[in-house]
Amino acid sequence: MLKNVVYTLVIITCLCSQAWSQPQSDLREEENIYEQIYNAPLKLIDGKSTTVLQLAEKKPLILALIFTRCSGICSPYLLQLKENIKSQSADATKPFNVLVLSFDSEDSVADMVNLAKRFELLDDNNWHFAITDSITGLIKSVGFHPVWNDNIKQFDHDALLVGINTQGFIIKKLLGMRGESDVALLIESINNEFIPTYRLPGKSSLFSCFNYDPKTGKNTPGLGLLFIALPALIAMLLLFGIRFVVRSKSS
Amino acid sequence: MENIRLKKITAIWIIAVLLLFVAAITLGIIMRLNQADVMHLNPAKFYEDMTVHGLTMIGIWFVAGMAALNFIMERYVKTSYSANLIALIFTVIGVVMLWISAFVGQFHAGWTFLYPLPLRPLWDSWAIALFLFSIAVLGVGWLIWTISLMAALLRKYSISQVFAWQHLSNKNPEVETPPFVLISMISLIGVLTSLLAAVVLLILLFAEFYTHGSFTNDPLLMKNLTYYFGHTIANEMLYLGLAVIYELFAEISGRPKWKTTWYVTIAWNLTLFFVLGAFLHHMYMDFVQPESLQLIGQFASYLASLPSAAVTVFSIIVAVYRTKIKWSMPNLLFLIGTCGWIIGGVGALIDATISNNFVLHNTLWVPAHFHTYNAMGNVLFSLGFFCWFSTQFSAKEVVDRMRSLKIALLIIGGIGFLAAFYIAGADSIPRRYSNYPSELAAGKSYALLGAVSAMIYLIAIIMFFVNITKRCLKMLFTH
Amino acid sequence: MQHSLLVFFAILSVVITAVFIFVYQSSLSASEENQGMKNTLQKRGWFLLILVVVLAMFASITIPKSPYFVYAKDIPSKVIHVAAGQFYFMMSYNAIDPKNPSSDPSIEVPVNQVVEFRVTSLDVNHNFGIYDSNNVLIAQTQAMPGYVNRLRCKFTKPGDYNVFCLEFCGSGHQIMRSSFTVK
């Protein structure tokens, strides 16, 4: 009986976990952490001038590096960022701005205005589109290395999000197309929320006990936790089961 | 007839426990001598000793508690002789398998066999299988015994009666639940839970072992399960001993029997829950465990001490204070054991505080505190029962000639051996090191002090062993 | 810290033992007429209350000092990556690739600044225990395969620090070690 219960649970858990996909992180995300970002001067599309640190001082910053001629990852990744941020529940205690910065010296303020229009973000106060004349120092400080490919007239580059806190420190980086929970974790981190652990890429989370849920800032019980609850549950069931059996036998 | 069979099997349990106890203490002394640089074992050999020492000790004092519980339970309800016998046979087979897997197969993952260490190719794969099966055999035997004892109680008492809930509202209820029945049930449920945790753990280990790694486990889950099982069973076996004290202390002292009161009921009902949360304090240094669970671990560990201190310990003090008592070996052992148990508890509470654990975890402080409430607590509870059991059937009054000597040796040896652990722990000496690096060479002197004191303790135990075994053997071969 | 805990423990042990000896003596000298303790329920209540208050005080003092909360709001000046394996520690300023692990020959960390160790394991459970130059254990975290534990420390004394493994990991457990310098 007991074994059957356990096996059934094992099978159910296996099936459930198939549906999950584990986001893959990259070791390069560990580079430049807790380093100061290069304070590049910015030209915002509303005509104002500022610097990265001045912008970050107001609210923690998510930096997205793109170029407008991109026919590759820039658009889908910006779109996903927009959707991911839209799906975050508003939390006044965890504010942030998004800085979309071009790393292509050919891009002009007008190009960036068009980009903002295309994504319908022109009037969003939390989104800033900008260009800079000091891109080399900035991309070096965040470990971003685009390479110009003359055959296709495009940059080969990563999809990178850099999280910067109000003091201008790089707190967390996300590489590649990432889900909303990773973006939420990024927002937590740049608001100096210390989470004393994280998971390494590529490990199965089949029976893990907890999954960090950045929406609530808490760990949510994973399927593995079921296995910890199981012994106590079965013991209680056995208690009532035994009483039932011995009583029906004696009567 | 029934009672004679029960008497005999209890006598066999006692002889087996004491025999294995002497052997396991010897292994412990060998380990301390090796750490002191007096002996020179190869590290793998040391860790085989350590694995066997740990599991054997946990095993024997668990079955000692169960055997005592079973014997006394027969006063209230009819228990199953076959379950008792099955447990005995399975325990013997399991222990033999365990010793072979370690001493022949060189399996040495420690008694906690923390995943994924046991599955690593550091020893033959047959040794892994034999070890896992030995745990399975022990687990099955003990599960059967536990369930049968629960069934025996539940045949007579309803669920609410077995937890003594009728004592909460009514001072003199129609059906009285003796404290022994209440504590037995609470402890048995805890034992059952920990054994079930071991079943889940074993299933997951077997799954990975027999799929050759195509199925892998989550190390955090496995660690939680390991301590859920390991901590809980080590804790519950103490409570088995307490059940016996609640029954026998007054009786041996020639005083009126203890009765269940509302606060005894509340205390023990709460204990059931607190104990199941306390294992979380083993995971403090795993920052991956959510903070809320870490805090639950600290609170549960603190709370678990309240009913023990305010109800059980206080009751024993009340029972003794300015009360004329017929002191004999068993109730003296119970009293000293209670003192050792609380002192060990204080050591445990210090370590169960997260900020202390940060600098004490896995130093010798850890074996220090659990050896306190085992070697100077639980062992004395069981020895008290053994003494009482082996003398109560003889027609003439048994005079214990070397009573003071035995107790003195136990206490002197015990204090020296434990002090060596505590001081070394406070000196940051790690536990489970076969040899100490030059920076931690202070550990060697502590180990020597520990070894010598443990030998004194061993002499006392051998004296008990000779005495008790002689009387138990006589019991086996009469009638 | 450890030594004050030891003294605290020793005092409590002596007090507890003294109470037991006193109670035992009172029993030896008791006559048949002695009635034992009076008002036990009331005394029990007081005893419980004192215990609860003491433990609550303990909890409220110690919990904020838990390693998960200390330095949580600081920005570490340096990250040191640690990968533990049977039976070695690898330490590096850069992230360590589990598939192709490598370490830096020597590690230096700044004095009086918060540093963060990101500790993981490449095989079984290990423990990253930091010992100061007087061989006192000052901080630790477990190294669990598949997970990274972030340990934040501030070293106030310059010098050589040793690292020992504090989780039994096999026959080479006692030789597992590493070191770094605080400057």
How would you summarize what this structure contains?
The complex is a heterotrimer of chains A (251), B (479) and C (183). Helices cover 37% and strands 21% of the residues of chain A. Chain A has 251 residues and is an alpha+beta fold.
How would you describe what is shown here?
The complex is a heterotrimer of chains A (251), B (479) and C (183). Chain A is an alpha+beta fold. Chain A folds into 2 domains: 27-198, Glutaredoxin, CATH 3.40.30.10; 209-251, no CATH class. In chain A, 37% of the residues lie in helices and 21% in strands. Chain A has a 7-stranded mixed beta sheet. The relative contact order of chain A is 0.18. Chain B has 15 helices and no strands. Chain B has helices at 2-35, 43-73, 81-103, 125-156, 159-162, 166-169, 179-210, 219-253, 262-278, 291-320, 329-351, 354-360, 365-392, 403-426, 442-476. Chain B is globular and about 60 Å long. By secondary structure, chain C is of the alpha+beta class. Chain C folds into 3 domains: 1-32; 35-65; 78-182, Immunoglobulin-like, CATH 2.60.40.420. Chain C has 2 helices and 9 strands, in the order ααβββββββββ. In chain C, the strands form 2 sheets. Chain C has a 5-stranded mixed beta sheet with strand order 3-9-8-5-6, with no helix packed on it. A 4-stranded mixed beta sheet of chain C has the order 2-1-4-7, with no helix packed on it. The longest helix of chain C is centred in the N-terminal third of the chain and has 27 residues, at 2-28. Chains in contact: A-B, A-C, B-C. Strand 10 of chain A pairs antiparallel with strand 7 of chain C, so a sheet runs across the interface.
